[in-house]
Specification:
The complex is a heterodimer. By secondary structure, chain A is α/β, with parallel strands linked by helices. In chain A, a hairpin with a 1-residue loop joins strand 9 and strand 10. The longest helix of chain A has 16 residues. Chain A is globular, with a radius of gyration of 18 Å. Chain B is an all-alpha fold. Chain B has a two-stranded antiparallel ribbon. Chain B is elongated and about 100 Å long. The interface between A and B is medium-sized, with 30 and 27 residues.
Chain lengths: 257, 380
C-alpha cells in the first residue's frame, strides 16, 4: 500500500483490491479491483445480477467478502466509517413504517450520536438543512407513507447528506423517480463534487452516464473496466458486460452527444 | 360498583388485575417491534417453545415457584429463537416453515413431558397444565413482583436502545453502514421479546400468548403514524386487556387466557373499524365521497351537454332525461340536489333542471381539466 501513498500521488477515495464475494458457493463478485479518485462522480453500471449492489455493500462492510481488501482514503473502512454515507435502494424498507420524514433524515446522525443518545435540537436543525437541499423541507413532518417514489428517494438522499461524509455510496438513486427529482439529485451530486466529495452510484440508464458522471465502472461479476467515462465507457466494454444487446442504447447516446 | 369495590379492596382480584395489566403492557410494548419487523408470528413460536422449558424446570428442581418456571420458559424460548435463526440463515428452509417446525417440535415435546409428569403418583405437579391456557387466579403477590421486575427490565432496555431498535426495525442495513452491530442489537431485541412473552405464560398460557404480542400493536398502529405513540398505545391496550380479561375470568369463572385474548380482540376490532384514515368506516366514507363527487361531475357535464344542444340556460331538462344519460340511475337526483346547493344547477318552475351561470362556468372548467385525458383515450 505504501508506494501508492508516495508524495504527490493523491490518495484515492476508494480502493478495492481482489474483492471476491460468494453467496452459498456462487461467486457474486470475482476478483474485482476498483480505484475511485477523490472528488469525482462515478457510475457503476452492469446487467442485472452483475453484483453492483453487492459491491457497494462489500465496501460498506455489510457483506463479508471471501477475499480482498477495501480502503477508504487509504485506510481500512472500519477506521473511516464517519467518512462514508450510504443511500440504499428505496425499495428495501417498509414505507408504511410509523415515522415522519424528519425522523428518517435524523437517522443519518445516529452514527455520530453513538449508543443510547437520542437525536435533539442540533440533529433536527441539520436534518432540516439537508431536507432544504433536496427541496423537501416543507414536507418534513409528513408521514413517510404519503410520499411519492421521487420524494422517498430525496428523503434517503437527505439522510445521507446529514451524515456529512466525504464519500457517498448510492444504490440506484435514480430508480423510478420523476423528472423533478432526477434534476434535484443531479444538482445535489454536482454540489457534493464541488465541495470535493466523492460519489459512487449504481446506475441503470446508460444514456445518462456521460451526462451525469465523470468516471464509470463497468461490472459483470468480474470487473470489465473502470476509468474516465470517455476512456472506459466504450462499446467494446459495454458489450463485454451486457452481451450484444447494448450497442443500440449506446449508439443512441453517441448520436445525442 | 361491586366490581370497583372488589378491585380496590379484594386482595386476590387486585393482585390478579395488576399482574395481568403489567404483562399486557410489557408484551404490547415489545410486540410493536415484532409487528413492525414482520415477525409477528415469532411470538407464537416463542411461547409454544417455552412449554418444555417450564416442565423440565419443574422436573429438575421439583419446584413450582414462578422464578424457576419463568427461568425454564426463558431458556427454552430463547433456544427456540436461536434455533429459528440458525435454520433460516444456514439452510434454504424459508422462515415461515422454520417457524412452524420450531413451534410444533418444541410444543410437542412440551406436551409429551407434561403428560409424563402428570402420570407420576405424587400431587406436586398439579397445576402445571394451567400453563396451557393460563390461570390468573393462581397469581400471588410474589408472582406479580417477579412479572413487574422482569417487565420493567425489558421496558428499560427498549427505552435505552430506542433509536437502535428503531433503525433495526426500519432499515437495518443503513444501521449497519453507520457502524452499529445490527446482529447483536437484533439478538438483544429478540431476548427482551422472549422475556416479555415468558412472564405472561402463567396468566395467558402458551397457546394464546402470541395474541398479546400481536394484537395490541396491530390495534395501536391504526391510530397513529408515530412509533412513540404506537408503543404507548400498545402498552395501554395490552394493559387494559390484561386487567380486563383477568377480572372477567376471576368473576365469571372463564379460563384467563381466552378472556384476555377476547378483550384484546375487542380493541383490535374497534381500531380496525373506527380509526381515522386506516379504519374501515373511514375508507368506506372516503370511497362514498369519491363516488358521489364523480357522479356529481358526470351530471354537471350532462347538463352542460344539454345546454350546448339548446343554447339557453332557461331551457329545463326533466330528471328522467338526465337519469338516462348518466347511467348513475337513482343517484342522479341526489347529485342534482348537491349541485343546486352549490348554486350550480337550479330547478325550473316545471320541475325540470337547468344550469345556472355559475354552473356553466364550473362545467367549462371541469371539461377543460378532463380534456387531455379524453384526448388520450379518444380511440374508442
Amino acid at each position: 500500500m505504501n508506494p501508492q501513498r508516495a508524495e504527490d500521488a493523491p490518495v484515492p477515495a476508494i480502493e478495492v483490491n481482489d474483492l471476491t464475494v460468494a453467496y452459498q458457493e456462487n461467486p457474486v463478485l470475482w476478483d474485482v479491483d476498483l480505484l475511485v479518485p477523490a472528488g469525482v462522480l462515478m457510475a457503476i453500471v452492469g446487467p442485472n445480477g452483475a453484483g453492483k449492489s453487492t459491491l457497494i455493500k462489500a465496501i460498506l462492510g455489510l457483506v463479508e467478502p471471501a477475499a480482498g481488501q477495501v480502503l477508504v482514503h487509504g485506510a481500512p473502512y472500519d477506521e473511516q466509517r464517519r467518512e462514508v454515507a450510504y443511500v440504499p435502494q428505496r425499495g428495501t424498507v417498509d414505507w408504511d413504517f410509523p415515522t415522519s420524514v424528519l425522523d428518517v433524515v435524523m437517522m443519518g446522525r445516529y452514527g455520530d450520536l453513538g449508543w443510547f443518545r437520542r437525536p435533539g435540537a442540533r440533529e433536527r436543525k441539520l436534518a432540516m438543512e439537508a431536507l432544504a437541499k433536496v427541496e423537501m423541507d416543507d414536507l418534513a413532518h409528513r408521514q413517510i407513507s404519503q410520499l411519492s417514489g421521487g420524494q422517498q428517494q430525496r428523503v434517503f438522499l437527505a439522510r445521507a447528506l446529514v451524515q456529512d461524509a466525504r464519500v457517498y455510496l448510492m444504490d440506484e438513486p435514480f430508480q423510478g423517480v420523476d423528472a423533478t427529482t432526477e434534476r434535484a439529485i443531479v444538482r445535489v451530486l454536482q454540489e457534493l463534487r464541488e465541495q470535493g466529495n466523492t460519489v459512487v452510484a449504481v446506475h441503470h440508464a446508460l444514456q445518462t452516464v456521460p451526462e451525469y458522471f465523470d468516471e464509470v465502472m463497468i461490472l459483470n461479476v468480474r470487473h470489465i473496466a473502470f476509468g474516465p467515462v470517455d476512456e472506459a465507457f466504450t462499446d467494446d466494454n459495454l458489450r463485454a458486460a451486457y452481451g450484444g444487446r447494448v450497442s443500440f442504447l449506446h449508439a443512441g447516446a453517441d448520436v445525442g452527444a | 360498583m361491586d366490581l370497583l369495590h372488589d378491585l380496590l379492596f379484594d386482595y386476590t382480584l387486585r393482585t390478579v388485575a395488576l399482574g395481568s395489566a403489567a404483562l399486557g403492557a410489557v408484551s404490547g410494548t415489545l410486540g410493536v417491534f415484532a409487528v413492525l419487523r414482520r415477525e409477528a408470528l415469532l411470538g407464537d413460536a416463542i411461547s409454544h417453545a417455552a412449554l418444555p422449558g417450564i416442565v423440565l424446570a419443574f422436573m429438575l428442581t421439583g419446584s413450582k415457584s414462578t422464578i424457576v418456571l419463568v427461568g425454564g420458559a426463558f431458556a427454552a424460548g430463547w433456544l427456540g429463537t436461536a434455533l429459528l435463526r440458525v435454520i433460516t440463515h444456514q439452510t434454504r428452509i424459508p422462515s415461515d416453515s422454520a417457524l412452524g417446525i420450531v413451534l410444533s417440535v418444541f410444543f410437542g415435546l412440551g406436551l409429551m413431558l407434561l403428560t409424563f409428569v402428570q402420570k407420576r403418583p405424587d400431587a406436586a405437579q398439579a397445576g402445571l397444565e394451567t400453563f396451557l391456557f393460563g390461570q390468573a387466579a393462581t397469581l400471588l403477590q410474589g408472582d406479580v413482583i417477579v412479572i413487574a421486575c422482569l417487565g420493567l427490565a425489558s421496558v428499560a432496555v427498549v427505552t435505552l436502545l430506542w433509536k437502535e431498535f428503531k433503525i433495526l426495525s426500519f432499515d437495518p442495513e443503513f444501521g449497519g453502514s453507520l457502524g452499529f452491530p445490527m446482529d447483536r442489537i437484533e439478538l438483544l431485541l429478540g431476548t427482551v421479546l422472549v422475556l416479555a412473552i415468558v412472564i405472561g405464560l402463567q396468566t395467558v398460557g402458551v397457546v394464546l400468548m402470541a395474541a398479546m404480542v400481536v394484537a395490541p400493536a396491530a390495534a395501536a398502529r391504526q391510530w397513529t403514524d408515530s412509533l412513540g405513540t404506537m408503543v404507548w398505545l400498545a402498552a395501554l391496550f395490552g394493559g387494559l386487556s390484561g386487567a380486563g380479561g383477568a377480572v372477567l375470568s376471576s368473576t365469571g369463572g372463564l379460563p384467563t387466557g381466552p378472556a384476555i385474548v377476547l378483550t384484546v380482540s375487542g380493541f383490535v376490532a374497534l381500531s380496525m373499524t373506527l380509526a381515522p384514515r386506516r379504519g374501515l368506516v373511514w375508507s368506506w366514507l372516503a370511497a362514498r365521497r369519491r363516488r358521489a363527487a364523480i357522479r356529481r361531475d358526470t351530471v354537471l357535464a350532462d347538463l352542460y351537454a344539454l345546454y350546448l344542444q339548446h343554447g339557453r340556460l332557461e331551457h329545463g331538462h326533466p330528471l328522467a332525461v338526465l337519469e338516462a344519460m348518466s347511467e348513475a340511475g337513482e343517484g342522479t337526483r341526489r347529485s342534482l340536489e348537491a349541485l343546486e346547493e352549490e348554486g350550480l344547477a337550479r330547478r325550473l318552475v316545471d320541475g325540470s333542471w337547468g344550469l345556472t351561470t355559475e354552473g356553466r362556468e364550473a362545467a367549462t372548467e371541469l371539461l377543460a381539466e378532463l380534456q387531455p385525458e379524453n384526448g388520450d383515450g379518444g380511440g374508442g
